[in-house]
Fold this protein.
Amino acid sequence: MKVSEFLNNTQSPFVLGAFFSRYVIEKGFIQTISQYKSTKFLDDSIYKSSLPLYLDALNYQSSDRIWEYKSKTSFQIVLENDLDLNNDRFYKLLLRKIMLSPFFIGEILDDDKKEFIRGFFEIRGSVDTSRPYLSQDYFYNSELELKRLRLLIDNFNIPEEAFNINFRELQSQFVSGENRRNTQFRINLFWYIKNIGLINEYKAKIIKEVYGINYKRNIDEIFYFECEEPSFTKAMINERLGFYLNTIYGKNLSNYEIDKIRKDLEFEEEKNDKFKRDVNIVKFMRIYAPDICAGCNDIYNIKDRSFLTRQNRYYTEIHHCISVGKDKELDVLKNLVKLCPTCHRALGKGSSSAEYQKELIKRILNSNQQNLEFAKIIFASDDINILVEKIQENLK
Ligand SMILES: [Zn+2]
């Protein structure tokens, strides 16, 4: 087919999704390619026999026999570039064609939109067997192309939380320079196989084998899974995309700067190196510090503010005088103090009025020499009012 015909005639959402996902322009042709690899989880003969079935599935979804073998294990649609389009120009014309398609303006995730999404994701997406994602390498040669992700997120009625993106510049292997992988664009596997389904039974078999979920073929030759709708926690993709475009893309940042950005973003893969609070110093305080509340000791007797435990001691709670957050430096004995439950509760961020919190903090510093000395060092000031101010501002 010629590019001019492709652009002028109606194309199935599946084919549009496939080209939107990735195309390559070379030697007078524009092509999109689909391929998938065999897995160690299934016998190799299953892979080999799946290949011709997959070619049929591609053509069936495209409502036209336009896919052909590129090699024994890859498939392609080839357009003759009769308009001599370059990368940006083809992208713009394709984008216009998609935006003018009737399915594009629909308010719900209907069958046409699902077809488009299958073209976008499945022709290049692979099943992640360690975490539940369908993931693909994401390529972009210009900022324009990077924005196609936003188009997908904003217009296809997929829950934003189902997306996940890991930009190559932010991967740990990139920073260390050991392995510069491509940017990964991922979608929640459980959401996908329940709502979009798969056209390739080989991938369905991998999921059945690895995740133990059964599937059924529906009348449109789609393999759907009966799994639970996943529960999502964070919608971050738009923020990440915006952040990436503004802060990282094309900025020639040093590894040090990128590493710092990664830390600020608290990348999910890095969460395990978050420090754990030292339980030993808390135990030590519990046992050896006297059972009085540094916050209200000079006003109330502890027996009026607490209760006797089975160990025959008054119940108290251990509090970090300067809130710790992510700063391991502050998790030390000198920063700990015993409080009654009431005072402790009052010092939660926003739990009581700022004035009351400052009063409490001042009494703690006055009755606990260790906390005062430590706060002087941390905030580099001998002025108790400044220390009180800073501690109150930093409550977490
Ligand atoms: Zn108290």
Remarks:
- The first strand starts at residue 24 and ends at 26.
